[in-house]
Amino acid sequence: MTEEELPQGEHDSEGPRFEDFDLAPAIQKAVARVGYETPSPIQRRSIPPLLEGCDLLGVAQTGTGKTAAFSLPLLSRLDPDLKVVQMLCLAPTRELAIQVAEAMETFAEDIPGLRILAVYGGTGYTEQIRELKRGAQIVVGTPGRVMDHVKKKYMKLDQVKAMVLDEADEMLSMGFIEDIEWILEQTPSDRQTALFSATMPKPIRKLADKHLNEPVEITIEVKRENAPNIRQRFLKVRPHEKIDMLSRILEIETFGAMLIFARTKNATTDIAETLMAKGYPAEALNGDMPQKLREKTVDRLRKGHVKVVVATDVAARGLDVDVITHVVNYDAPFDLESYTHRIGRTGRAGREGDAILFVTNKEMRMLNAIERTLKSKCDEYKFPTLEEMNERKLGEFFTRMEEALTSNDLTDYRQAIQKFLEESGKDSIDVAAALAYLDAGKKPLFYDEMPTAPKGPKRERRERDGDRDDRYVNNNDLQSYRVEVGEYHGAEKRDLVGAIANEIGMDSKFIGKIRMFKDHSFIDLPKDMPKEVHEALKQVWVQGHQLNISVDRGRPRQEGRGGKFRGKGGGGFRKGGGFRKGDGRSKSGGGFKGGGKFHKER
Ligand code: AMP
Prior knowledge:
Blueprint: H1 25-34, H2 41-52, E1 56-59, H3 66-76, E2 87-90, H4 94-107, E3 116-119, H5 126-133, E4 138-141, H6 143-151, E5 162-165, H7 168-173, H8 177-185, E6 192-197, H9 202-211, E7 216-219, E8 230-236, H10 242-252, E9 257-261, H11 265-277, E10 282-285, H12 291-303, E11 308-311, E12 324-329, H13 336-343, E13 353-359, H14 364-373, E14 378-380, H15 386-406, H16 411-424, H17 428-439, H18 457-468, E15 478-483, H19 493-504, E16 514-516, E17 521-526, H20 531-539, E18 541-542, E19 545-546, E20 550-551
Parallel strand pairs: 1-6, 1-7, 2-4, 2-5, 3-4, 5-6, 8-13, 8-14, 9-11, 9-12, 10-11, 12-13
Antiparallel strand pairs: 15-17, 15-20, 16-17, 18-19
The structure holds adenosine monophosphate.
């Protein structure tokens, strides 16, 4: 491996690291906590000018990391002690407003006293007004509702230091341009402004010319590279299904080695660990690992000692391992350049390669861009039928025989078999079949049903215990929890049940009543959940949003016997093997960390 081919860490010469930016320490801490390994291209180019107070005009789409590109530097510049609206972000839809507010909540978690409020139409004013009165410093909202609040004097914009116009072209096509102009005029003219747009139609250019002050302009360029020897397919997934889809792909695809791309360092280890638990040896490759360890992993991959590696973009940069036959984009890449780089890790040395892209509803744009801009044809991934699987197995069997016949010295085996045939009088085809059977570990040649992911020990335990488990879960054993996913996120009750049941292996009989609201829901789950189960639940994603579960403290709790499930070996959990009494309580008291700003509909 040459120097260039070594997987590079985040300390490479390719660009700055987050630590190189003069972000507030609390923001640096948040970046480390969420596990962003390296700044995305738009972040690299936006963060320094925004930290300096410059205006910015960015041509970039969702999925490029633009939320963090403006949030990290602008949050670094706010004064948490000043209880007035200091930053206003306008977004075209309430979904985006909620999403941006959520991201900011995460980034601002370590800044005490910072209040972030999402305001949008289609919902009551009372809670929004209350939050404004409490001194929200950051408002993320749709233009119409923001304008309403300002006109009714619930919101003052005279101390706004920074303004963000997110997805400006979308706001234009939704007819918001005049509202935006009006809002801009209510803010101080020396404010800092960042405008992001996927395209730059004339009215947006005009708006920028009028309201931005010598902005730094950034366009995330697209490299048009083609990859003719790589078969590109996409698979529509819902976020919580990804890991199961990946297991199925591992089961079904015939591959030399598979490189799976995830966005964060944490995700690489989580995915690798989950795959291990399901029985697939997999290793993570990320910039947190020392260079020596990374090299070792790459070496094991090259030698075929490990066949599945889960990597971040940075750690896989320049990776040149020709046994990689498959690349799976488990998390969609930031941009097309990163997509071409990722899929280029297969099909090395003129071989053929396979690239599979997981796309959630929100990421369909990325798929369109790949097809349109890269002129790559992406077919939908189809799981094969049983007949196709068996046909493939037969083909593989023939290939292995061919290889064994041509590339080995079989003299001794030939003589031994000759002797056996003469002495036993058996038929030579019968003997060959018996040998193939032994070689296959005494397994049949064909599947009689579709292969599924092997059951990890934890799942087996759950099923075993679950079968024996005839306990009745009554309401006194449950309590209400709040999860930060609601109707506006496109979630339905079955999504919540599915995600909880699949991701942490909780038997659905332990899942009680569910009440869904716009941006959150309440769900009855067992009391006294072990801490690790509670933590695991926080991380579960539904429709692109983390549950962030917390005990619902917003209303009286039913009293009942506690700890009924304690130590009863399993209780329907895959992880943790049952309910233990633990302090499964969240610090965040029934709302968003940092202040419960979104509970409006209670
Ligand atoms: P956005 O384009 O802002 O919608 O971001 C898309 C996704 O990328 C979000 O899930 C972010 O959390 C994630 N993301 C943003 N920046 C980074 C980064 N530097 N490293 C890894 N993931 C990131």
